[in-house]
Amino acid sequence: MCGIVGYIGQRDAYPIIVKGLQRLEYRGYDSAGLVLYDGNDICLTKTKGKVEDLKNKAEAASCNTGQLGLGHTRWATHGIPNDINSHPHYSNSGDLVIIHNGIIENYESIKKALIKRGYTFESDTDTEVLVNLIEEVKNTEEVKLGQAVQIALNQVVGAYAIAVFDRNKPNEIVVAKLGSPLAIGIGDNEYFVASDASPFIEFTNNAVYLEDEEMAIIRPGKEIKLRKIKDDAIAYPNIQELQLNIEEIEKGGYDHFMLKEIYEQPRAILDTYRGRLLADQGLIRMAGIDQNLEKFLNANRIIIVACGTSWHAGLVAEYIFEDLARIPVEVEYASEFRYRNPVITENDVLIAISQSGETADTLAAIKMAKEKGAFVFGVCNVVGSSIARETHAGAYTHAGPEIGVASTKAFTTQITILTLIALKLAKEKGAFSDSKFHEYLTELEAIPEKVETALQSNVLIEQIAEVYKNSSNCLYLGRGYNFPVALEGALKLKEISYIHAEGYPAAEMKHGPIALIDDQMPVVVIATKKGHYEKVVSNIQEIKSRHGKIIAVVFEGDEMVSELADHIIEVPETSEPLSPLLTTIPLQLLSYHIALMRGCNVDQPRNLAKSVTVE
Ligand code: M6R
Question: Based on the domain organization, do 228 and 196 belong to the same domain?
């Protein structure tokens, strides 16, 4: 849950490290640090706070020269966010310097053993223990840094992406990975290291993503050499050409990444179905499904695992798969699934959904399902991510980088992919006629334009946000396909505005939450004309009778709800299974505006990080 970046070559490392950290700040932002080395002097600066604070501190201390640099942006696990616990960390001799993303689980026992051998520790971190373990191995075994790293890593339990160098070897960085991502950018006589490719995309398109349990010794002018940490076997680097471009990772004129990403949804959804949805030919073409069709068609059931927003997309998928393709589906929180000894058979298909492709719990659930013989299919956004590599097959969402911590376009593009899969399976199973299938394809094809229309309510939504910005609580209600949208709306509001919000199936309200309703309680109700419409209208009446304030999301031209609600937000009409792709848009905008009006950091809400690589 931290971001790491490194550079070794001929350029000044400082601007590369700082810019790289800014791009990785979505991974953690409670503290940051950097180290620079010019072959003579090492300069290390670190601070609690954002990369901007680090930059100010580094510049005030003139800590900005050197052709070797490492940087770290932190999401605290071991030790509170403060200057001392920030990375990089020195070893006791001051010779070794390390940055680390991950957790060393057995650090306490290693620390005790090191203390007995005379080591002292400044910070509360597991990382400082690791760098001293490497130093201890290096000294006692009289080996070079690379070997010391390898031996030390064989003694630790946990997850890591590390970069470490030795003051006595200014021409070398050693990197290693297990469980946390690590990409190496290959330039001309220079190398870049980072948690993802965004810090080096303007310098090189060539990158190697380390596999788990791989390490590399990086020296400018020398070819990159990979080794397996366990047995020292040589591994061959798979050099990939990156598709990412610089515009995609900048704000592009928007005030926040979240707003940019909300507005990108028409394009993102189109990119998701481009080349897959061929309405004129009455076809859905998806390599990952086509090549494994029998597995899906013969599956006993589909198990969907995910976390957070991706879990909500999984819930929408449950409705679509069962309703359209008549395949039984279970949706599981990855964090619960992995630890509850679930019954999994070889006839199960597991779909793992993850924007980042790095979520630790989802990754662990995949590994467990694979061990038990299930076929595992990934729906990821980040190309080359750990989950994308760990699954048997998969489909990328092609949403483009999502940097705002609150997921927006990831959600709608995940639903798009899952809808394509469900429609394809429904067709293959003969669950509906050619004309019905064609109707869905045409309707799905029209979604980007309808999202564009839904976005036009932005000003109205801003006005509604003004009315409710000081609320302490908010309830979100929906039924059927729009129940997961209610959950997602509530998650968006709480994570960026810190207002307590709950999502509920509308009919469940009378089993408890209705007790909360009074004239101070805003209730966002998704009341689209299709699917239990009259029943939702009754639920709205129940809220009105108790003086709750209704913000209703309805299809264009709705009259019945308009008469009852305090505020109406219209979205274009579509078929019921596709409605979440539209009804979620106003909820994203509502939380965005409320959070902004409350002075919250929309893109980097407190206590959160974009990729949750710890369990
Ligand atoms: O990268 P993933 O999709 O696996 O991430 C899962 C959750 O951590 C993520 O959706 C989180 O809930 C978001 N902050 C929600 O906006």
Answer: yes
pLDDT band, very low/low/confident/very high, at 534 (cuts 50, 70, 90): confident
Q: Are residues 214 and 262 in the same domain?
A: no
Q: Which helix (H) or strand (E) holds 524?
A: strand 522-526
Please tell me the distance between residue 136's alpha carbon and the centre of ligand 1 in angstroms.
Answer: 39
Range of the domain at 491: 455-609
Considering the domain architecture, whether residues 592 and 460 belong to the same structural domain is answered as: yes
**Residues 89 and 205 occupy one common structural domain:** yes
Do 345 and 407 reside in the same domain of the chain? Answer: yes
Mapping DSSP onto H, E and C, the string for 418-435 reads HHHHHHHHHHHCCCCCHH
pLDDT tens for each residue of 443-482 = 999 999 999 999 999 999 999 999 999 999 999 999 999 9
Look at residue 246 in the predicted model and tell me its pLDDT. Answer: 75
Whole-model pTM? 0.81
Ligand 1 center to 603 CA (angstroms): 13
Is residue 494 one of the residues assigned to a domain?
yes
Ligand 1 atom with least separation from CA of 387: 4
- How does pLDDT run across 107-132, given as a tens digit for each residue? 999 999 999 999 999 999 999 999 99
pLDDT at position 369: 96
pLDDT at 352 over 80: yes
Ligand 1 site residues, Cβ closer than 6 angstroms? 307-310, 354-356, 359, 362, 405-407, 491, 495, 611-612
Overall number of domains in the chain: 3
Residue 614 lies in a domain: no
First to last CA, the chain: 10
Q: Which residues of 315-339 are buried (b: 16+ CB within 10 A; e: fewer)?
A: bbbbbbbeebbebebebbbbbebbe
DSSP assigned state of 548:
P
CA 124 to chain centre: 27
pLDDT for 326 beyond 80? yes
Q: Give me the pLDDT at residue 156, please.
A: 96
User: Is there a single domain that holds both residue 263 and residue 164?
Assistant: no
Ligand 1 atom nearest residue 356's Cα: 1
Please give the average per-residue pLDDT across 173-194, as a whole number.
95
> Is residue 191 included in any domain, yes or no?
yes
411 Cα to the center of ligand 1, angstroms: 9
Amino acid identity, position 219 = R
The residues annotated with a catalytic role in the active site are 2, 610
241 plus 256 within the same structural domain: no
152 & 174 share domain: yes
User: pLDDT digit string (tens) for 382-393?
Assistant: 888 889 999 999
Residue 89 is part of a domain; what is its CATH number? 3.60.20.10
- Of 225, 248, 271, which one is at a domain's C-terminal end? 248
What distance in angstroms lies between residue 612's CA and the mean position of ligand 1's atoms? 8
Q: How far apart are CA 378 and CA 350, in angstroms?
A: 8
In this structure, which residue's CA is closest to atom 4 in ligand 1?
Answer: 354
